[in-house]
Amino acid sequence: MSIDTNNKESNHRIIWNELKWLPSEEQLAQFIHLQDLLKEWNKKTNLTRLVDGDDFWTAQVCDSLLPLNKELQYPELSRKYIDIGSGCGFPGIAIAIAMPNSNITLLDSSSKKTTFLKEVSKEIGLNSRITVVNERAETAGRDPIFRSNFDYAIARAVASANVVAEYLVPFLNSTGQALIFKGGWSEEEEQILTKALIKLNAEIQRTHKFVLPNNRGIRNIIRISSIQKCPNQYPRSVGKPRKQPLGY
Q: Which of 28, 91, 118, 168 has its Cβ near the most Cβ atoms within 10 Å?
């Protein structure tokens, strides 16, 4: 695929400036290929409405990578990520493209979505570094293959933060971080999350507010780290984290 890098760089300059990172020609080609595949698959199965122009580049690519702008400065580092509720591949596939030495597990309970994720990973040449798992977070979080095995556990637009924390923390290794993507973020939500994390032997490391470019709104990122090993009873059985959320 022939890419006019200068033209693309000019079109998306505001995004790369915001990220303080510039994709290589190969990475840009992979993002464009991903966009094309999303458009193609969307004709037969509704995956996401955010596939065209700024919807894709800002609301998907930039939104996925902006919370990791610190990590983007060290692309040579090898890290293991798990993206919970990966859906159409954001942030997981975006991270796989941007972090060429990292391995990414994409977890989703929808077989329609995991079928898409497997096909796309293969098409854009990332299947050697991407593992796609069709499973619920509560089940995978108890599986010894996945539990305590990741440097980063990430969820974007999945559920309330205290619920998401119960999904993410069991996946973390001893130095790992969980990243929860939120739009709005209130003091009350932070208090509830703090209480929930006590039960998970974890704590809020920091919260960070980003303003997405092109008037795409505010994104709050909550970074969580483990204090001690997550107790074996978490995550609880399928459905319980949502029905009986921690922190109350």
A: 168
